[in-house]
Amino acid sequence: MEFIFCNGNYFGGIISATVLADPNPVQLNPSLIKELHTYGINNYDHLIPVDVFNWRSLLTIKGFLLMVVGGFLVGFGTRYAGGCTSGHSITGLSNLQWPSLIATVCFMAGGFIMANLILPFILKL
Amino acid sequence: MQIKETNIDFEVRSLDAMCVNESELVHPWWFNFKYLFAGIVFGIILVKAQVISWFRIQEMFRLQSFHMFGVIGSAVVTGAISVFLIKKLNLKTMYGEEIKFYPKQFSKGQIFGGLLFGFGWALTGACPGPLFAQIGTGATVILVSLFSAVAGTWMYGLLSKRLPH
Fold first, then answer.
1. B124 and A67: CB-CB below 8 Å?
2. What are the tens digits of pLDDT across the range B1-32?
3. A56 to chain B, minimum CA–CA distance in Å?
4. Is the predicted pLDDT of residue B94 greater than 90, yes or no?
5. SS3 string of chain B?
6. Span B125-165, pLDDT tens digits
7. Which chain B residues are closer than 8 Å to A91 by Cβ?
8. Do A73 and B16 touch (CB under 8 A)?
9. Does the global pTM surpass 0.90?
């Protein structure tokens, strides 16, 4: 059942990228654009920065850390925490569950640490 | 001798966060199309709201935009109203089954796992559901991230008994 739902998710992605495509690039904070420029990220046409997320960079240390290690942490962390952004942050908080609040705070803390303190070094590789 | 029961099957607990209202009814296979439809709608919303954009995630964690906080915040408010109405009006599923809410149990996993999840979220710009939608938008290389995420869940299964909870 969840698998069918996720497949639907995939088809939803296809429909959004074809029938419902938006030709304009994503409107971002200028300071983020400036920062990403220093890492060689200049393409904003996709949901992910194709300058670093592509098949060729998969074999570089940077690409491996971003895609393989990143994906692994998402899967491992989701099961360890007993849920993800949907399970804890949205449905858990909606149901006023305090363990979900702890999980959400830790999701955000992990993200802040990674994005501000670790990711800049990875993107400079 | 008194035997204290301890739940070491954490898979059960992880399911608690997602689907506690698994239907016990048996339906023909084509009944599953409604989940496909719900998934398609969810995928379109994820993409069009840009919440699966790696760039939006970076903005959120740098406090450079209200975008993600607005989306997640309004989702929580909508969810809270829905939960309130389901409980208040004693709403049933479309097949008339009761909707039950189970309290979540605290475990250290929510802290350690939560932090690890946050690291992965900031790296890939995606949580589990969005990985599928990102692939759908044509980013085929994210298939690797998806397989890696599945490998991560297996690794958790292997190590779960040795990790602090």
1. yes
2. 455 545 545 444 444 444 556 677 788 888 88
3. 9
4. no
5. CCCCCCCCCHHHHHHHCCCCCCCCCCCCHHHHHHHHHHHHHHHHHHHHCCCCCHHHHHHHHCCCCCHHHHHHHHHHHHHHHHHHHHHHCCCECCCCCECCCCCCCCCCHHHHHHHHHHHHHHHHCCCHHHHHHHHHCCCCCHHHHHHHHHHHHHHHHHHHHHCCC
6. 998 888 989 999 889 999 999 999 999 999 999 999 999 98
7. 17-18, 79
8. no
9. no
C-alpha to C-alpha distance for B27 and A111, rounded to whole angstroms: 41
Query: Residues B58, A31: contact at Cβ < 8 Å?
Result: no
Size of interface A-B (CB pairs under 8 A): 389
Quick: pLDDT tens for B73-84. 999 999 999 999
Q: Is A10 in Cβ contact with B132 (below 8 Å)?
A: yes
Please tell me the predicted confidence (pLDDT) of residue A26: 79
> Which pair of structure tokens corresponds to residue B117?
């999840």
Residue B141 φ/ψ, nearest 5 degrees: -65, -20
List chain A residues with pLDDT less than 50: none
Residue B96, pLDDT score:
87
> What are the chain A neighbours of B147 within 8 Å (beta carbons)?
71
Residues of A in contact with B19 (CB under 8 A): 1-2
Measured between CB atoms, does B151 come within 8 Å of chain A? yes
Q: Does B40 touch chain A (CB under 8 A)?
A: yes
Query: Which of A8, A71, A107 has its CB closest to that of B40?
Result: A8
B70 touches chain A (CB under 8 A): no
